[in-house]
Amino acid sequence: MSIAQSVDRLISKYGDTIIVADGEREKTHKAIIQPLMYKNKMYLGGDVLPTGYLDKGHYLMTGPVGILGDNYEAAVITHRNIKYIVKRAETITASDEELYTWAVLEMYGEEVSDEY
């Protein structure tokens, strides 16, 4: 079993059901969504944040490769009846193999920030 297959298996087993809508269609996936915590004193908007800071406005999604399609800026994620927009996303690779996609989410309808 490859690393990518192992990661997919873990996400399928432990992830929650989410809906990804891109304006044209909706598709159900499994993903893990958790509050975004800063572990390395990142600077957002010029502020020094303490390690472990939880801003309660952004969330980290980890899902299978291709979960967001080609245009993540148009995606709206629904998880437990809460809608999120994607602020930034990236596919992680190792040994020339795509393993998973992560995304920073923001609650849909909240004031949009440009920090990511």
What does this structure look like?
The protein has about 120 residues and is mainly β. The chain has one helix and eight strands; from the N terminus they run αββββββββ. The strands form two sheets. The chain has a six-stranded antiparallel barrel. Strands 3-4 form a two-stranded antiparallel ribbon. The radius of gyration is 15 Å and the shape is globular. The model has no long low-confidence stretch (mean pLDDT about 85).
Number of helices: 1
The helix/strand class is: mainly beta
Percent of residues in beta strands?
over 45%
3D shape: globular
Oligomer: single chain
Radius of gyration using CA atoms only? 15 Å
In short:
The protein has one helix and eight strands; from the N terminus they run αββββββββ. The chain has 116 residues and is mainly beta. Strands 1-2-5-8-7-6 form a six-stranded antiparallel barrel.
Summarize the SSE layout with pairings.
Blueprint: H1 3-14, E1 16-21, E2 26-38, E3 43-44, E4 47-48, E5 53-63, E6 76-79, E7 82-94, E8 97-107
Antiparallel strand pairs: 1-2, 1-6, 2-5, 3-4, 5-8, 6-7, 7-8
Q: Top keywords for this entry?
A:
single chain; six-stranded antiparallel β-barrel; mainly beta; 116 residues; globular
